[in-house]
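Researcher: Sequence recovery benchmark, item below. Answer with residues only.
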């Protein structure tokens, strides 16, 4: 009998500052999945994932509830970690993921007794994938993130962060974000604000109520941007994320017409994931760029979104894994699409990895510098404590290396 090597697996339930409305659900905490995999040489490769089952597959949440769906995702992560620990230690992260996916997809479908969105499973694999990239970096003595990027992907991550303006953060304007906080965000001089649309104001999933609420909200925020520009702000655009809540193209067009009638359409830089994943209506003739998120989770789905007129793909190393994000960036680049690094209310450790990818992407059309979404500081109750877990740069010393961050952040976390 071959003995299994021991793995570390733990979940920390991080409370949020307040209820987080998302896809007609309300979230009060985010589960952080911690994985430690023995590296075969006496050390441990660490990985972290922020679970978001509502993003991954809201149908699972509808059936099992938030806690039940979180437990399912954690079970998938734990199982995948045990399988990964038994794989040869010299496999590259791409091969590890290729070997894990069939088994964990089967487990996920057995748990739900039905089909499950692949994005749910990808979210569960984030901590294992992060640990594998750290292992790969150490085994090959890689210290610079640029050297982790596969050669075929490098042409589509062409920006040198050392010479380009720093990637700008994209904060979140939720349905409950107040005017004072929006004013503070505008005062920071950020080029993009993300507005979550697809609201359920009456908690009855009424599409007409959603449309009215969303239109009024976007117009309200656009008016605040107008006033901020009169006071000196410049070039602020809006990025709308519907999370698949609009049933069809006609309903989306009605929203855009309402925004246009109010004179605010020029503010819209992007509408992300407007329709349900299975809806393949062509959106290339709309007056604003359209992006794919949940519906784009591998190279085939990126190509499918390109064929339906989408021009931007949201890559999420903190939700779809770095391995899958690299593959999607290459596929999007070959299709002539732009990429944007989107968040999953990522904790500070995952934000650091997101920033490395975002800072190398070509800016979205109409923007002068790269951007990436991050809203953890707006939502985690213990954000300051989480940030303090990262090593701080000391005067006269180089910045802490990305590859080493998890080894500082994760040991002892949650104890």
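Model:
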């Amino acid at each position: 009998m071959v003995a299994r090597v021991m793995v570390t697996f733990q979940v920390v339930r991080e409370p949020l500052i307040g209820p987080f409305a998302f896809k007609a659900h309300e979230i009060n905490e985010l589960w952080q999945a911690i994985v430690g995999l023995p590296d075969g040489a006496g050390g441990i490769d660490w990985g972290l994932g922020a679970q978001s089952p509502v993003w991954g597959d809201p149908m699972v949440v509808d059936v099992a509830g938030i806690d039940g769906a979180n437990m399912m995702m954690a079970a998938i992560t734990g199982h995948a970690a045990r399988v990964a620990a038994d794989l040869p230690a010299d496999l590259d992260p791409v091969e590890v993921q290729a070997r894990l996916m069939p088994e964990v997809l089967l487990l996920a479908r057995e748990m739900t007794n039905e089909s499950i969105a692949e994005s749910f499973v990808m979210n569960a694999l984030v901590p294992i994938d992060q640990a594998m990239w750290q292992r790969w970096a150490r085994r090959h003595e890689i210290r610079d993130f640029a050297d982790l990027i596969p050669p075929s992907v490098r042409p589509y991550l062409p920006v040198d962060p050392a010479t380009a303006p720093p990637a700008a953060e994209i904060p979140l304007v939720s349905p409950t974000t107040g005017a004072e906080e929006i004013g503070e965000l505008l005062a920071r001089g950020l080029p993009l604000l993300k507005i979550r649309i697809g609201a359920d104001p009456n908690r009855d999933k009424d599409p007409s109520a959603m449309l009215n609420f969303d239109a009024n909200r976007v117009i309200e925020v656009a008016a605040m941007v107008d006033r901020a520009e009169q006071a000196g702000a410049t070039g602020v655009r809006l990025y709308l994320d519907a999370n698949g809540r609009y049933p069809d193209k006609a309903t989306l067009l009605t929203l855009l017409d309402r925004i246009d009638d109010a004179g605010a359409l020029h503010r819209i830089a992007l509408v992300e994931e407007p329709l349900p994943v299975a809806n393949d209506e062509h959106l290339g003739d709309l007056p604003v760029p359209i992006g794919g998120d949940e519906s784009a989770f591998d190279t085939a789905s990126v190509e499918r979104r390109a064929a339906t007129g989408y021009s931007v793909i949201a890559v999420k190393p903190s939700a779809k894994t770095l391995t899958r994000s690299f593959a999607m960036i290459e596929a999007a680049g070959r299709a002539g699409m732009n990429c944007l690094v989107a968040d999953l209310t990522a904790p500070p450790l995952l934000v650091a990895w997101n920033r490395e990818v975002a800072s190398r992407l070509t800016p979205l059309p109409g923007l002068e510098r790269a951007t990436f979404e991050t809203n953890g500081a707006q939502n985690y109750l213990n954000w300051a404590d989480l940030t303090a877990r990262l090593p701080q740069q000391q005067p006269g010393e180089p910045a802490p290396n990305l590859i080493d961050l998890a080894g500082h952040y994760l040991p002892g976390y949650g104890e």
